[in-house]
Automatic annotation (TrEMBL):
It is found in: Mitochondrion. Pfam families: DUF498. This is NADH dehydrogenase [ubiquinone] 1 alpha subcomplex assembly factor 3. One of its GO terms (biological process) is mitochondrial respiratory chain complex I assembly. Its main location: mitochondrion. Keywords: Mitochondrion.
Length: 172
């Protein structure tokens, strides 16, 4: 019965979304791939656009930044829960324990820190790994496109997650 209620509450939103014209995306702006699925009316419906307005969601990326909740951000970003801030590192070698020092203050501590290293998966230095472990978080190092998608999924699941993202155009 709860599934039927969720379906009837979600269908009007889905119809409004389908009717809207999709924006003309330039070649430099690429939407993130969706890993979410929609099931039949008898199963749970899980729609990618059915996200609360106050929840951060990466919607796209460029070589120089990201689109989060419909707003374009240039440069590196740091996301903690539903807080997004500009982040200083421009390349992987600039990521240090000092650049991640905000995690000494944040409570509750996120379960995982997703590190988007730009176009390619590169490893941070061992000092950064030790710092992240000392805060109680796990570190997941991915390219920025996959890091954004992973952040979206974990955040939508209600997990306490953080992301430190370099723009996709960065390569070390």
């Amino acid at each position: 019965m709860a599934v039927r209620h969720k379906v009837t509450a979600t269908l009007p939103y889905l119809m409004r979304t389908i009717r809207k014209e999709s924006p003309n995306l330039s070649q430099s702006h690429q939407p993130l791939p969706s890993l979410r699925r929609a099931f039949s009316l008898y199963d749970q419906i899980n729609l990618i656009d059915n996200v609360p307005d106050d929840q951060l969601r990466f919607q796209g990326y460029t070589a120089t930044g990201f689109t989060v909740n419909g707003v374009d951000y240039e440069g590196s970003v740091l996301c903690v829960g539903n807080l997004l801030m500009s982040w200083t590192p421009k390349i992987l070698s600039e990521i240090t324990p000092e650049s991640l020092s905000v995690f000494k203050l944040i409570r509750p501590v996120p379960e995982i820190l997703i590190l988007g290293s730009g176009r390619y998966v590169d490893r941070v230095n061992p000092e950064v790994r030790r710092f992240v472990r000392s805060t109680g978080m796990k570190l997941e190092e991915l390219d920025s496109r996959n890091a954004a998608s992973t952040y979206n999924i974990l955040n939508e699941e209600g997990r306490i997650v953080a992301a430190a993202m370099l723009p996709y155009g960065v390569s070390s």
